[in-house]
Amino acid sequence: MNHNNKKKKSKNEQQEFEFCEVCRLNHNNGRRHNFFPSHKNSLSSLLARFQSKISDVKFFLKTPMLILPEHTHQNRLWCVFCNCDILELDSQFAWSVISSNAVGHLASEEHLKRVKGFMWKYGGGMDRVDLFRITEADFAKWEKKCKSLKAEAAKTQSVGTSNDIHNKHNAEIVNSSCNNNFDSLKSCIPNYVVPLHSYTNERTPLSGSVLSSSVSKTGPSLYNIPGGSQVQDAHYLKNLTGSVSNQHFPNSLARECSSYGDASTGSVYSGVRAGIGEVSPGLVNLTHVSSASKVALEGNVHTGAPPPWLDGTKGDNLDPALKPESREPVSSRAGKSKLNPKRVGAAWAERRKLELEMERRGERVNNNFDANWLPNFGRVWQSGTRKESRKQFQIENDAMREPDNHLEAVMPIQPYISKRMSLLIQSLICSVRMQRMILSASLYDAEAYCKTMCE
Amino acid sequence: MEYLLPTLRKKQEVDSLIRDTLDKVLVLRFGLSSDAVCLQLDDVLYKSVKDVSKFVTVALVDTTEEEIQVYLKYFDITYVPSIVFFFNAHHMKMDSGSADHTKWVGTFQRKQDFVDVVEEHMVQGCKSSLCNCRRYTERQ
Questions:
Q1: Which domain of life is it from (chain A) (predicted)?
Q2: Which pLDDT tens digit goes with each residue over B72-122?
Q3: Of A65, A140, B103, B112, which is most buried by a Cβ count within 10 Å?
Q4: Which tens digits make up the pLDDT trace of B38-67?
């Protein structure tokens, strides 16, 4: 009995459905579900995606940066473990630190608890908990950096008119960059006020293609900050003009960028950093590719040039197998028809179509369609062919117009009799005749008998 | 319903429509616009005409017109509404359960009945045979 009860209990447990947030489905497999390959795949992909997002956050953890509160709405993070959306809505300062709320959330104890619970429930591995959170030590370091950053921002804002102009220019750059207006950024930076201590002969011009390519590659992919590198540029340039003593910031930033593994970010600073006598580590191996000359000749979307795949000269080089099949001449298809050639009125239809075509062309058509034309109709009270019925009707019509003839009374009514009816009538007639014959025969026999009897 | 379906008042119009409707079933409704049964039939025709427009042409013929009297005699129309079916200018006979196989007398109760009848006409017109539409009258 106890063994049966245990079996029943285990069956009941298995039958209880629960929702797996990793696989996004309901199952009644209990803990066994965590070992299914589909679940393992889903879990690994989920954790990998969140890991990439956390790595982006950790990038800003190591190097905190400032961003305008207008653009903080672009920084959002969905925490898979806590099922909550982390927004950046800090608007206390003119400049706010990127991903401050995200860092605070990932370092919180509640998040840690939920990560542990998630890993235990879905089998992610308890040893990987630290990968999805920020330790207290890192959080403390980050807080210190933020404080110093904000202090610098407050200092630069309190400086005189020359810095106000630079701040305005920075704001313009950031705004234009956030609007993905790379052209304006390109035009802004070369025209920017260059500090006197920079060596102009060592400073290489920033080409638009390099800048745009680096802009697109720079920055964490999750946050999609279009002005990420521009922010860095603006801030870097602002620091150059603002306080010379803070040169360590851009240096460390570049170093961090290069250590982050994005060599393209190093190329952004190649020209400017050369101006202060330092060489970025990631510059040497990059090849600059500029297609400005080609673009100027062929044109692009902005100049209204046609796209290359619609170029007429290239059409001849197409593989004949890829060319569309040549259309069959319409005249050869005219003779083909899906309609049954034996359908009702097929001859009339074909003839009439030809006549209509001729009429459309303007040619004369010999028609016998007068006012007395009548269609092919099988009348009710007339048997025989339809032509005969039509003739009879026309005769009747003429008789009606000429009341003197009185032919209508003469015309016999010949109702239509179907074959079945005619056969039935014939059979009836035969049976009647047979009966008569039998009756007559019987009568004859009776008479003969009577005669013999009398005799 | 004269404003919803093409109405013919002259013999020439009827003739041209019969002659020029090719490879489609031509439905000619003979009736009056003031008759209740005719109105019901017209309503069914109007609702169905769009669905069957690819193989059917529907037209109303006003029996009060003088020029149409010829057709009333020719088709032996004594009760209205009456529907005469044509295919490629040939009159299509149908067995509707009555002795008169030349036309459909009366109205259709449902739109589907009319659709079935014209479908049968189309099929038989392509096959060149008589239409058997007894089942549609038995339903009514």
A1: Eukaryota
A2: 888 888 888 999 999 998 888 888 888 888 889 999 989 999 999 999 999
A3: B103
A4: 999 999 999 999 999 999 999 999 998 888
pLDDT in tens, A305-344: 776 666 555 444 444 444 444 444 444 444 445 777 888 8
Of B23, B91, B128, nearest to A378 by CB-CB distance is B91
Q: Please, are residues A282 and A263 in contact by the beta-carbon 8 Å criterion?
A: yes
Phi/psi of residue B90, nearest 5 degrees: -110, 135
B86/chain A closest Cα distance in angstroms = 9
* Mean pLDDT of the region A226-246: 42
Residue A46 tokens, joined: 């989920």
Report yes or no: A354 at the B interface, CB cutoff 8 Å: no
- Taking CB atoms and an 8 Å limit, are B90 and A348 in contact across chains? yes
In this complex, the residue of A340, A344, A374 whose CB is nearest that of residue B74 is A374
Residues of A in contact with B87 (CB under 8 A): 343-345
CA distance A369 to chain B (A): 9
Cβ contacts (< 8 Å) between A386 and chain B: which residues? 91
pLDDT confidence band for A9 (50 / 70 / 90): low
Complex ipTM value: 0.83
Task: Supply the DSSP symbol for A376.
Answer: B
3-state secondary structure of B58: strand
One-letter identity of residue A342 = K
Q: How many CB atoms lie within 10 A of CB B136?
A: 21
B125 contacts A344? CB cut-off 8 A: yes
- Partner B contacted by A349 (CB < 8 A): yes
CA Rg value for chain A: 49
- Please state the pTM of the whole predicted model: 0.39
- SS3 at position A112: helix
